[in-house]
Each structure stands twice: as C-alpha cells, then as structure tokens.
Give the backbone structure.
Amino acid sequence: MTKRLAGKTALITGASSGIGAACVRAIAAEGADIILTARRRERLEALAGEIRKTGPKAEIVIGDAREEDTARRAVDAAVKAFGRLDILVNNAGVGNYKNLIDTDADEYDEMMDSNMRSTFLFTRQAVPVMIRQKSGTLLMISSMAGIYGFAGEAVYCATKFAQVGFAQGLDKELRPHGIKVGVICPGGVKTEFAIGKGRTEEGVAGSEMLEPGDVADAVLLACTQPAHARIIEIQMRTMAEPLA
C-alpha cells in the first residue's frame, strides 16, 4: 500500500523531543522525507538514524529556532536534499508559568521569540518555496492557551494567541496559492516542556495530560487531507480536563 506522504518533504522545528519528535515519527511513518531541526545534536542524530532505518531520508539542521539563519538553513537543506518542501510544522517553543508581576522583560522576550518569532521566521522562509510549488501545508503548534486566557500564564497565552492570529491571517493570504494553513491547540502534554518553569517532572508524570503521540496524530490528520480540503484549527484536551 502506498504511504500517504510518500514523495513529500516535511520540516519539523523543536524536533529533538516531545511533540516535535512524535511528529517526526508519525509523518515519516507515512513515507515523507524529513528535515529535523533543534539545538540538541545528539538527540537529532539519534532520531534521524531511527527514521532512516524505516525507509525515509532524514537530514538534521542544528540551530536556535529564534535565529533567522537557522530557518534559512533548514529550508535550504530541504530544497537541496529533496527538491521541495511540502510540510512545515512550527513546533519549537517554551513556557514559563508566572504571574505578571513576577515576569521580567527577558522572560517575556524568551517566550515571544521562542514561540512567535520562530514561527514567523520558519514560515517566512518556507512560503516562497511553497508558492513556487503551488502547494504546501503550514501548521502551528499553539495551545489551548491560545484560545482561552489562564491565570498565571498571561504572557505565555499572548504568544500562543499570536500564533493563532498569524495562522488565521495566513490562511486567507496563502489559500489562493494552494497553501493550507492550520493550527493545532492542545491542552497540557506529557513532555519536558516548562519543567522547572511552572511544571515538575513528578507533576507531569502523574498527570492525565495528553501524550505527544496524541498531538502528532492531529498533525498527521491535517497533513493528509485531500487536495481540496484543509483543516484550519484543532482544539484538543484529555477527557479528564474541562474545556477551560
């Protein structure tokens, strides 16, 4: 049976762990070649090796997603290695759960740059390639904190609301070029995210949060829609959590 993403190329940011690594595995399992980018070389090399053993090709780009050079190198790597870029998953991001009066400007910059600036930079580099192809799928991994405001998370929420607005604007701007734009908004996920910045390893392990693979399944759904259909937004929570 032909795999649904055979012949496609996907770029995943923040690919060294958590949701990003789960997305790499899910998308590669459907036959796509992968560009993995993050800062942790050893983890990326191990994951790329794992993917290559299953058939798809994989290339790694080491760098900080907040830097334009990283985005440029990652998109260039996709075009050089595979001749195209079909899927971009903007997954890189950080959290820091604090009340407003306990949050300083450096922490604000870290969250806004890691979550929104990285999304802008990678999307800005990917879109010209997709316009030339007259096709592509752009996905932002936002959060339920991009849909509802939560106490103690105002700045984090601001960064995630920004991703949702960015996706909505781009959907209207890029649909005439055949490019699909969507946003995935999960609740809490069992990852390293925000450990020591409002979360603890014990708290996450003992929680009823979503698993990274749950989010990756939603990403895969958006990536495998037929040509005439697009997914604009998916909101996700566990059965154990209320809506807001």
